[in-house]
Amino acid sequence: DLTSIDTGIVETIEHEFPQYGASYATPVPEDLRDKLVAIVKTFILPDSPLEINLSSQIVAQSQAFVAGEPMACGVLDEIKNEVIDMLYSNVYIRYCESHQ
After folding, report:
1. Average pLDDT per block of 10 residues along the chain, 100 residues long
2. Residue 45 and residue 63 in contact, taking contact as beta carbons nearer than 8 Å
3. 10 and 23 in contact (C-beta within 8 Å)?
4. How far is the CA of 56 from the CAs of 6, 11, 82, 93, 100, in angstroms?
5. How many angstroms separate the CA atoms of 100 and 98, rounded?
6. Which of 4, 8, 83, 90 could in theory staple to 77 by disulfide, Cβ–Cβ 3.0 to 4.6 A?
7. H or E stretch covering 11
């Protein structure tokens, strides 16, 4: 099920775009670079307009990607997992506690 919270981005790429032969280590396809750079500049880079608090490792990989280096598709899953963890620990638990 591609809509499950447990479904990874790499798994979705494998399913929807089998021509890429995506794996965790596969570089993000070049035809997706511009769109991903826009997302990174909006949400991930330091001082971006809607910056989210991600690990320094992900921020560094994202900065390198914007500078022109390749990024492994697996980094997208790492980003997704960090966001899900933050939503769970910072939003969901508080929501549940306030609505008991």
Report:
1. 80 86 88 94 96 96 97 94 90 84
2. yes
3. yes
4. 24, 25, 12, 25, 36
5. 6
6. 8
7. helix 9-16
